[in-house]
Each structure stands twice: as C-alpha cells, then as structure tokens.
Amino acid sequence: MKHFETDRLLLVPADINDAAFYLELLNTPKWLQNIGDRNVKSIEDAKSYIEQKMTPQLDRLGFSNYTVIRKSDKVKLGCCGLYDRDGVDGFDIGFAFLPNYEKMGYAYESASKLKEVAITQFKIHKISAITIPKNKSSQKLLEKLGFSFVKMITIPNDDEELMLYEYIAKT
C-alpha cells in the first residue's frame, strides 16, 4: 500500500505488525482523555482493532490510518489518518502521538502531508476534523493547518459534543 514521506517522517499504513505500538498509543492518558477508550488491552486486541477498524477502510478507499515513523531512527512516534467516520460529512483527519514526541512539530508535519495528499491524490476537497472542546492543542493545530470551526456536533453512539472543523480546498 502507498506510504508518504516528509523531510523527517514516513507515514506507513498501519498493519498488524504495529500492534504493540498501537497497544501503547491507544492507552496513553491523552488518547483516553481526548479520543476515548477503544478497549484495546492486549496485543491481540490491538491486532483485532487494526484488522477491523483500519484495514477495511484502507482496502476500500486506498487510505486510512498511518503509523508515523521518524526516518532518522525508524522510531514509531504516533499516528495520523484520514477517516470515513459515521456522523461526519466526508472524511476527517485525525492525529495522536506518544507523549515523548509531542510538541516537536510531528503532528503538524504529518497532518500537513496527509492534507496535501487528500487533495492532490485522493481528490478530497473538503476535509473535516473533530475534537473535544477541552483539547486546546488539537484546536490550535487544526487552525494552524487552515481548518475553521464550523459547529458543535455529536456522532452516532456518543453523547459527547464535539467541535467540527472543516478545510475546503481551493479548486
């Protein structure tokens, strides 16, 4: 499957070989607080999560969730993806990083690249993003990426109000 590169990063489609990494990432305090508990408590759970939540969209659309890897030492830092999410019009972009790799520009760098390929390669001209109101760092990053707040929404099977952001590509 297609992967993408920036100056410092590789964005590689997540697969079951990344299970240990996703087990760690999905259980970080910020993931649990800002994204929610995905009930991934073992390597087997992580493999199932990747196979059931990430791989089908990749097979169907050609894009999904990407493991973000630092080129210099091949360390897995976080994830960034374009998601076909229920309750969100079109596709939304999302990102999360291990605590040791936050505030280093990796989220901006990887999300910028995915925004670019969404427009140029996948012909997606409206990209959405959702975040919880208390996640100020995510809001700042989305605004830096050129996204604008649109409205508050809820998505199916979740009562929490989310902030919906959108980016409309110039055609």
Could you describe the 3D structure shown?
It is a single chain. This protein is α+β, with helices and mostly antiparallel strands and 171 residues long. The chain has a single domain, classed as Gcn5-related N-acetyltransferase (GNAT) (Aminopeptidase, 3-Layer(aba) Sandwich). The protein is built from 5 helices and 8 strands, in the order ββαααβββαβαββ. It has helices at 19-25, 29-34, 43-61, 106-120, 136-144, and strands at residues 4-5, 9-13, 65-70, 76-83, 91-97, 126-131, 148-153, 162-168. Strands 1-2-3-4-5-6-8-7 form an 8-stranded mixed β-sheet. Helix 1 crosses helix 3. 32% of the residues are buried.
What's the quick description here?
The protein is an alpha+beta fold and 171 residues long. Helix content is 33%, strand content 27%.
Query: Could you give me the name of the CATH homologous superfamily?
Result: Gcn5-related N-acetyltransferase (GNAT)
- Along the chain, the helix and strand elements come as EEHHHEEEHEHEE
* Percent of residues in β-strands: 25-35%
End-to-end separation? 27 Å
Q: Please tell me how large the radius of gyration is.
A: 15 Å
Helix and strand content put the structural class at alpha+beta
Domain module count: 1
Mean pLDDT: 95
Largest sheet: 8 strands, mixed
Counted by DSSP, the helix tally is 5
Shape descriptor: globular
| Percentage of residues assigned to helices | 25-40%
Give the name of the CATH architecture: 3-Layer(aba) Sandwich
The total strand number stands at 8
Classified by CATH, the class is Alpha Beta
Strand order of the largest sheet: 1-2-3-4-5-6-8-7
pLDDT < 50 stretches: none
CATH topology title: Aminopeptidase
